[in-house]
């Protein structure tokens, strides 16, 4: 495939480690997103984090000087909702292990959300990041899955970037449930290529006309490559240049940049392609 950055019409940003880290905006994120909007690039924000609603992310980004709306926010929680609605799985009784954003998104489409099994069967167990995860929650999820509930994971990110460090991500909680229930989940978020295809469909562009910008090779870049998108690794989050260059060519990002501030260079054809990518 001939790679032409000047054909790009849509840019998809990961959030954690790209736009901000922890509660601190990363330099240039506000300027770059305004630059894109002024030039009519379609701009989407796609996070594996399921802890907040899309409305909450709109407010959060506004506080960092980034203007958007719910139609341009995609989260692993909103993708989980799409999984239920697109596959005609409603009505459903769902045991949720996760923070406020996940049950809120599910309830909006009529999912019956529970935290304990109670006396009725549970149809699905949905697990995301939960910073108040306990043994009791693990036990409830395990027992529901052992009784026949379908196990769904919003994401399997092992870590989550914060200022100067990382903390356990949603994937660590998913791993605990998978171990206890001896069952692997259906994975909804990145690196599933369906997520990338959904966004390009929403944007009305071809895969090669979209650029995925992320900080994590095994989710952001892998999803982009599997969905046929162009990809850019920024080095302000989890993955390193050395890790990227050690991957097989088909898994390497098309561009590797230090910060989001270099994204306009890519779009205007001034940034060099990563020579290892194919």
Outline the structure in words.
The protein is α/β, with parallel strands linked by helices. The chain folds into 2 domains: 5-48 and 190-267, HAD superfamily/HAD-like (Rossmann fold); 77-187, HAD superfamily/HAD-like (Rossmann fold, 3-Layer(aba) Sandwich), CATH 3.40.50.1000. It is built from 10 helices and 15 strands. The protein has helices at residues 29-38, 54-63, 76-86, 101-108, 135-146, 170-181, 193-203, 217-227, 241-245, 263-267; strands at residues 10-13, 20-21, 24-25, 42-47, 73-75, 93-97, 112-114, 124-127, 150-153, 159-162, 165-168, 186-187, 210-214, 230-234, 255-257. A 6-stranded parallel beta sheet has the order 5-4-1-13-14-15, sandwiched between helices. α2 links the parallel β4 (42-47) and β5. The termini are close together. The mean pLDDT is 95.
